[in-house]
Amino acid sequence: MEGKNFFRCFFFICSVLLITLFTIFNFPNPISSKVELLQCATNSAWCTSKNRILRHPTAASLPHDHTSDVPHHPLDPLTIIEMNKVHKVIKSLFENSAYAVHSLILEDPDKEVVLKWKKGDALPERKASVIARASGKNYLLTVGVESGEVVEHDTSHISGYPYVTLDDMQKVMSAPFASAHFNRTIVERGVDLNHVACLPFSPGWYGEAEDGRRLVKLECFNTEGTANFYMRPIEGIIVVTDIDTNEVVELVDKSKHIPIPKAAGTDYRLSAQNGPMIKLANPVSMEQPNGPNFVIEDEHLVKWANWEFHLRPDPRAGVMISRAKVLDMETGLFRNVMYQGFSSELFVPYMNPEEAWYFKTYMDAGEYGFGLQALALEPLNDCPRNAQYMDAVFAASDGTPYVRSNMICIFERYAGDTAWRHTESPVVVDKEIREARPKISLVVRMVASLANYDYVMDWEFHSDGLIHIKVSLTGIVIVKGTSYVNMNQVNQNEELYGTLLSDNIIGVVHDHYVNYYLDMDIDGSDNSFVNVHLQREYTKGKSPRKSYMKVNKTVAKTEKEAQIKLKLYDPSEFHVINPNKRTKVGNPVGYKVVPAGTAASLLDPEDPPQKRSSFTNNQIWVTRYNKSEQWAGGLFAYQSHGEDTLQVWSDRDRPIENTDIVLWYTLGFHHVPCQEDFPIMPTISSGFDLKPVNFFERNPVLRVAPYVENELPVCKAAVSS
Ligand SMILES: *[C@@H]1O[C@H](CO)[C@@H](O)[C@H](O)[C@H]1NC(C)=O
Ligand SMILES: *[C@@H]1O[C@H](CO)[C@@H](O)[C@H](O)[C@H]1NC(C)=O
Ligand SMILES: *[C@@H]1O[C@H](CO)[C@@H](O)[C@H](O)[C@H]1NC(C)=O
Ligand SMILES: [Cu+2]
C-alpha cells in the first residue's frame, strides 16, 4: 500500500514535467528533449507513466484495421483491396468450379525496376503470383492486380504439389474415422474414439507408386488428460489418405503391443504444474523512456541506427528482408548490402526406417508454408515489452484475404554486451584510460509452430554492419511409443532409434536444416565469391619458426566452384566482394558469411529425402541470380522428386564472377533427444553472421557515445492498481 502511494506521489510531481516532455517530443529538437529526459529519469516519472506500463502507442503498434491499406513501396505485400481484386479474377478464371488457392502473394517487380524506384515515383505495375489447384492440376499464374490480365506459366515439367492449405489439413483430419478398421483398432488399443486427434504429416516421396495423388500420412494421438498429446502416440498406425478426395488409401496398423504412454507429467501449461517454482522475484526488463530508436515508415520500411530495410511477412518464407542498406558515416550515404534474404526451405529427417516412421522427412516451408504456420506472438514473453508488432495479410484457400495479427515483432536489444572496449593501464599512460561502448541491436522475429515444433527465427542487425541470422528450436519433440519403461529392459544391441525419455516414450534422433537465400548486393549487383583459404606454409629454414598460416584467395569462376563443404582442419573464410569497388587503400569491399550451426547430413546422397533436400549437400552455395530460383527444395516441394532444387541449378555451373549472385547458407542441427527435452524442450539456438570485411574504411562504431548513469531509467516493477 505504501509503495503505491509513493508512486502516486511521484506521478503528480512528474506529471507537469511529462506534459512538457510530450510537447517537446512533438517538435524535432532532440537536444532539448534529452535535457528534460535526464531530469525526469532521476525522478523516475517514466517508471510510473502509463506509457511504460502499456507500451508506446505508436502507429505501428496500434491494432489496426487493414481494410483500406494501400501499397507504398514496390515490394510491399498485396493489400486486402488488391487481394480481393485478384480473388475475383481467379474465381472467374475457374468459372466458379472447384479450385483451391495455395499461395497468393506479390509477384516482385523485376530487380532492375525496384533498384531504380525512388520514394515519390509511381509504383511499378502491381502483380500477384498465384499458385492454385483445380481439376487435379497445379497452376502458376501471374495476375495483373488492376488489369486482371492472367499469364499462365508452364510447370508441367516440375514434380510435386504446392504446400497444403489450412483447409486441406482441417478436412483431412477426420478422414480416418470413416474407416471401420481404424475405429476398431483404436478401440482395441483401449483408446476412447472421442479422445483421438489425427495430424496430417507430409509423406515425403519414395517412388513413382506414390505419384498421381496428393497424399498425407495421418498419425494419431490420445488427447485424454493432457494438452501435450504428442507424448501419447498411438504407435504404428499410419492412415495414408488422399487429400483431394479424403479417401483412405492405406491403413498401416502395426505395433499393437505398444501401450499408449501415460498422460501424467506431460502437460507443459502453467496450470498443470505442481511443486515449487523457480522464482526470479526481481523482474528484468528493458526500458525505453524515449520510445524506440527505430521507425517503420509506410508499414514496411524499417529505419534504425545506420540501417534501413524493407520488411514483409511471407506465407512461405515467414519473414522477407529486402533492400537492406547501411549508412556509411564517412560519406553520409546509404550503401547496398543485401537485395533480399529469407529462409528458403527446411529439412527435418527423422532417423527411423520403420514403416510408421521412414517417411518423416519434412520440408516445412515448401510443404506447410513456414509463414502460414507463424501464429500471433505472445507479448512480454516471445518479445520484450519494448517490441512493436507487424501483422500479415494472407490468402485463405478460396483466395480471400485474412489478417494474421502480431506475426512479426521488431525490438531493440541491449543484452549488456560491449560493442568495443579498451582499458589502458596507468603503467604506460599518465592516467588510466577506460573506454567501453554498449552493444545495441535491432531484432526482427517470427515464430513458426509446425505442429509440434516451434522455430524462433531472428534477423538481428548491428550498427557495426553485422547481420546475425539465428534459428532457435523449442516446442515438442515428436516421439515414438515403446513398451520399455527402463533402459535395463533393452538388449545391448537393440536399435532404439533414439533415447528413452520417459515411460514408454522414445525421442527419435533427427536433424533440422534451414536454408537461407541471401541475394547479396555489395555496393551494387555485380559481385564475386572469394574462397579465402587459410593454409599452412613452411619457412624452409628461413626463420626460427617452422611454419605459419597464410591466406590464399581464389575467386570462384562458376557455380560448382562455390559448392562448399566446411572443413575444420582445412579452413577458409567465404567473402562476397564487389570487385569493381575498392576502399581507399585498395581492398575490394565485401561481406563474409561466418558459418555456425554446421551439422551436415549423413544420409546417402541418393536416398530420396536427401535428393529432395539436396540443398543440405553443402553448407554454402553461390548461384547466378535468377528470379525464378528462390526455393532451395523446389517450387512444389510436396511429394517432389528432387529435380527442381538448388543442387540441380548449381550443377548447371553457370559463371558467377563479377555478376549478380545469390549466396545460400544451410544452417544445421543434429538432434539426439535427451530427457531434458521431455515434455517440452528448452530452446536451443544457432546462428550465422553476415559480417563486413573491408566494407568500411575503419571501425564503423567508433563514434558511438557511451551510456551515462543519468540517461538510463531506474524503475521498479509496474504498480498494479
Ligand atoms: C468411427 O468413430 C467415430 C467417432 O465415434 C464415428 O463418428 C464414426 O462414424 C465411426 N466410423 C465408422 C465407420 O463406424
Ligand atoms: C592458392 O590456392 C589455389 C587453389 O587451391 C592453388 O591452386 C594455389 O596453388 C594456391 N597458391 C599458393 C601460393 O599457395
Ligand atoms: C532460371 O531458372 C529457371 C528455373 O530453374 C530455369 O528454367 C531457367 O533456365 C533459368 N535461366 C537461366 C538463364 O539460367
Ligand atoms: Cu529437434
Automatic annotation (TrEMBL):
Residues 73-153 form the Copper amine oxidase N2-terminal domain. Residues 286-702 form the Copper amine oxidase catalytic domain. GO terms for biological process: amine metabolic process. The modification 2',4',5'-topaquinone is found at residue 453. Its EC number is 1.4.3.-. Topaquinone (TPQ) is generated by copper-dependent autoxidation of a specific tyrosyl residue. Its cofactor is Cu cation. It holds the Pfam family Cu_amine_oxid. InterPro entries: Cu_Am_Ox_Cu-bd, Cu_Am_ox_TPQ-bd, Cu_amine_oxidase, Cu_amine_oxidase_C, Cu_amine_oxidase_C_sf, Cu_amine_oxidase_N-reg, Cu_amine_oxidase_N2, Cu_amine_oxidase_N3. The active site is at 364 (proton acceptor), 453 (schiff-base intermediate with substrate). Keywords: Copper, Disulfide bond, Membrane, Metal-binding, Oxidoreductase, TPQ, Transmembrane, Transmembrane helix. Residues 162-261 form the Copper amine oxidase N3-terminal domain. One of its GO terms (molecular function) is metal ion binding. The chain crosses the membrane at residues 7-27. PROSITE patterns: COPPER_AMINE_OXID_1, COPPER_AMINE_OXID_2. Contains 1 topaquinone per subunit. Belongs to the copper/topaquinone oxidase family. This is Amine oxidase. The lineage of its organism: Eukaryota, Viridiplantae, Streptophyta, Embryophyta, Tracheophyta.
